[in-house]
């Protein structure tokens, strides 16, 4: 609980009376989650919360007691303890006037799912899980290009990408399968152009 209390210190209790609407956004590294989230934000007024971006921001915060721990997990392609991620997400939701959120890159494993359900499940309304399905080769090429273009991400390199893909296949795919059994997954073929993919995504949000 030390982690939770430290990160939540000074924040009001989450969410008031209105439960926020959540869409989880999952897919392999380089599947285009961030790009599509930006388009959804512009079209439908959601707030985009990237679990990875929040963790990188916490890592870079001077004096953060979790900075080194987070960096080690990011470099090794492993998953940060769920209490840290959940509380960073909860803090970000508390600060927002909008109550519609895209949560990108989470939950990434069974521990994330269990932690989310325990800490946040009753506080939110999960609308669906948006799953960007894309071949590994395409995703790796996109990430390497992003790294070469100066993404500034310490994990946009071939060695980290192999680890991240193993984590995705072994840990995240079972989460997608879990939500699929609950008929909550909306699957998108992400091996197309940004605009073609968004045409499909748009229909999914319009139908809900």
From TrEMBL:
Enzyme Commission code(s) on record: 2.7.4.14
Top-tier EC class: transferase
Binding site for a ribonucleoside 5'-phosphate: 56, 78-80, 105-108, 153, 164
Binding, ATP: 30-35, 146, 192
Record key words, sorted: ATP-binding, Cytoplasm, Kinase, Nucleotide-binding, Nucleus, Pyrimidine biosynthesis, Transferase
Catalytic activity: dCMP + ATP = dCDP + ADP; UMP + ATP = UDP + ADP; CMP + ATP = CDP + ADP
Residues noted as binding CMP in the record, renumbered to the chain: 112
Region (NMPbind): 50-80
Cofactor note: Binds 1 Mg(2+) ion per monomer.
Cell location: Cytoplasm; Nucleus
Coiled coil regions, renumbered to chain: none
Pfam family, one: ADK
Cofactor: Mg(2+)
Role summary: Catalyzes the phosphorylation of pyrimidine nucleoside monophosphates at the expense of ATP. Plays an important role in de novo pyrimidine nucleotide biosynthesis. Has preference for UMP and CMP as phosphate acceptors.
NCBIfam families the record matches: UMP_CMP_kin_fam (TIGR01359)
Record remark: domains: Consists of three domains, a large central CORE domain and two small peripheral domains, NMPbind and LID, which undergo movements during catalysis. The LID domain closes over the site of phosphoryl transfer upon ATP binding. Assembling and dissambling the active center during each catalytic cycle provides an effective means to prevent ATP hydrolysis.
Complex formation: Monomer.
Family named by the database record: Belongs to the adenylate kinase family. UMP-CMP kinase subfamily.
Protein name according to UniProt: UMP-CMP kinase
Underlying gene: LOC106457461
